[in-house]
Each structure stands twice: as structure tokens, then as C-alpha cells.
Amino acid sequence: MSRRLRAEVSLTESQRLVRRSIRAICDEYDHEYWREKSRNEEYPHEFVDTLAEKGWMGALIPDAYGGADLGTEETVVMMEEIAACGGGFAAAQAVHGGIYNSVPIVEYGSEELKNELLPAVARGETQVQAFGLTEPNAGSESTAISTFAERVEGNESGSEGERAAGDDERDGNGADRDLPTATDEGSGYVVNGSKIWTSRVDVSDYLLLVARTTPREAVEKHTRGISMFLVDLDDAREQGALETSRIRKSASEFVHSYQLFFEDLWLPESALVGEEGEGFYQVLDGLNEERLVIAAECVGLGELAIERAVQYANEREVFGRPIGENQAIQHPLAKAYARVQAAKTVTYEAARADVSGREAGARANTAKYLAAEAAFEAADAAVQTHGGFGVATEYDVERYFREARLTRLVPITQELALNYLGENVLGLPRSY
Ligand SMILES: Cc1cc2nc3c(=O)[nH]c(=O)nc-3n(C[C@H](O)[C@H](O)[C@H](O)COP(=O)(O)OP(=O)(O)OC[C@H]3O[C@@H](n4cnc5c(N)ncnc54)[C@H](O)[C@@H]3O)c2cc1C
Asked: Hey, which residues does 148 pair with through a beta bridge?
């Protein structure tokens, strides 16, 4: 399937411009580039640096802070194109966090933080690639997080010998590190706990951390008492308060994910993003847009898988004719195409409509669900089309298949997307 056979939707002039620009960048990175990154489990620095140099990491940052100020529609095009051009879902994931994590900072960060950080992010000099919400005991049920940021009040006089709240506990843990205290740093927070599956920590300067500031038992609604922080990762390592352990995984292998352990991490008051206790709502705020962008990445992966399969089906001859002549090869690819087309239409229409509110949530969850299923079907058909070579790494489709499987799990599972529709569209009882 050549590009002119890609699933089609009508694009605005600015979307067409985004598509052309991203395609020109992606064309510099061929299939061998992505194969090598996958083989070596190595982050695609060259690709990401090129995007950054051309200003694309600032896609969602307003003009006033040096960004490109794109909307959801353009970002959907951008991420679909990155996935479709050869890197697949993993290539999109390599930059996804860097682009999306600026959104809560734009919405909720202080003016000082925005002026300091966002222009550098837009220029690609500073990376805010990592976002830490999930914990070993809190995945789908994200309000069950227990990583705790305890507020400590500074001593204005700064008199020597004053100790911060929480120091006794630290001594009790046997920590003999010389921790910065509230006395010498002003008011702030001390963070303890663990995160899991935090991606791109190795290529990020900052981590957007979601932690409890009020215990779950002490809030009326579980969604309250959660706060968002911007953690300087170098500083956390220098404090000796952050340990990371890489998780080996079978998909998106060149985008590394980690388990993080925080022990008495000191954060100054200025690390708080937005309002204390309202962090969960800040996370929810950009969720519909992000889900649509994920859907677009799935669409791109599906298109890529179909493209490679059609190419092979035309080239490979068995019984003296191209295998693509067999309907057993054609129909699964045609069905996958139809499903990718449907998912793409839903995704683009949702991106064009209002992206806030319950109806938008329904559209975003529908798009994510359909696009992940369509990507999976396309990748599966691509493997089957390749026969035994379907599992040979040099043909790439086995990588697309592993990634497509992953799209059914992240950033929310398909079941949780369906739960949203069951409850909020069909009016069925909440299941959790
Ligand atoms: C490669 C990768 C990268 C990731 N990157 C990040 C990241 O950068 N930052 C971050 O914070 N997180 C990240 N995650 C975490 C991801 O968001 C979670 O894995 C996801 O939300 C699911 O949570 P869980 O794995 O704990 O599954 P669980 O919540 O334990 O669910 C297990 C199964 O039970 C099902 N289930 C649970 N409750 C219900 C219910 N009520 N109804 C129906 N089914 C239910 C789920 O759908 C799933 O199939 C990443 C995950 C992966 C795999």
C-alpha cells in the first residue's frame, strides 16, 4: 500500500502542513534505523533531536512561551504520521511524553515556572518526558496511589539546629544521608514511595510526579488529596533520594520504563504544579486529548502494518503467483484497512469536536478502543501475510504486532475504556 492508499480523512490546510513537515523528517529515518533501535533497545535520540530542533517538542506550548501552539487536530496528525512512517507506536511513544507533559504546566504552572521552563522545552533543550502516576498497587485504580508527599513548613528565621517535620521519621528509617531540611530550604515536601512503569526517565530532565498529599482514608472523595509535582531528576539523584530499576519488556523496547523508589526526596514548595490536593483533576483535564492522540498513534501503526503487508503480498510468489492474489491474504488486509479507516474517522472527528466534557470522554474512549483493536487486527494480518517471515525481525511486522498488543493495555486498558462507555454512555451501573 503506497501512502496514497492510507486511510483517508479530509484535512485542513494547517493539518496538511503538519503532515508534510513531519513526513519530511520521518523520511530521513528508514526501516533499518528503527530495526537497529529495536535490536539494541536504544532510544532514537537522532530522530527525537531532529524533531526538537525543528520545534516539534513544543507542539502544545503557546506562542507566548516559544511553542508551536498547535491544537488537538494538528497533534493527532503529527503523531499518526510519526507512527505510520516506520517507527510505529514506539516511535510515537518516544516523544509522546515530552509533548504532552507540558500541558499541565501550561494549564496549572506558575507564571515563573512557565517562563523558566517552557521556552527551553520548546527549543528541545530541556526534556519533561517522564510522567509518574502508576504504582505497583495502583494501575487502573489510580486513586489508590500511596506515594506520599508530606508537607513540611520552613522556619522563617532559619535558625540553626531547627529540624524539619519528618526528620524523626527519616532517622527512624536509618537514613544517614545529609538531607536538605525545611530549615535550610524553606517550606516544601518530603516524598516517600514507589512508582512503576514510569517511561523515559533515562532521557528526561524532569519528572511530572503525582503523589498523595492527604491520605486516601482522610479524604471524602478518593480523587481529592492528590497533588502534582515537577521533580528535577538530577537533583533527586544528587540527594540520593531516587533509585531507578529498569523493567525489561517485550514491546516498545527502545523506550525504557522504570520502577522508581523515593526515599525522603526533598522538594521545594515551588515544585508543586497547580493546587495542592487537586492534582487528580489536573491529570483528568487533558485526558481526552491525550487519548485521541494515542488513538492516532494506533491508527498510524495499523496503516504501517497494512502498508508493509501489501508490499510483501505483491512481491512474494508461491505456487507461481503473488500471494496477494489469494483472497485468504486479501480479505484480512482489506478488513483491517476498513477497521483502521473507521477508527481514523472517529478519531479525527473527535479531535475536531469539543474535547472537554462527558460527550468528549465518550468520543475519546471510543476512538482509543477502536484504534487499538484496528491496529491489532492489522498487525496480526501483516504477520500472517508474511508466513514464517512474520516472526523474523528483519521484516519488522513482528515488532508492529508486539506494539499493537501493547496498545490494548496503555495508557488505559481496553476494559477501562469500555467501562467509561458502559457507565457514561449506556447508563449502566458503575463496575468499580
Ligand atoms: C510499556 C508501558 C509503559 C507505561 N508508561 C507509563 C508511564 O510513563 N507513566 C505511568 O504512570 N504509567 C505508565 N504505564 C502504566 C499503565 O498506565 C498501566 O499499566 C495501566 O493503566 C494498567 O494498569 P495495571 O498494569 O496496573 O493493570 P491493573 O489495573 O492491575 O489491571 C489488570 C487487568 O484487570 C482489568 N481490570 C481492572 N479493573 C477492572 C474493572 N473494574 N473492569 C474491567 N476490567 C478491569 C484491567 O483492564 C487489566 O486487564 C505504562 C505501562 C506499560 C505497560
From this structure: 192, 212
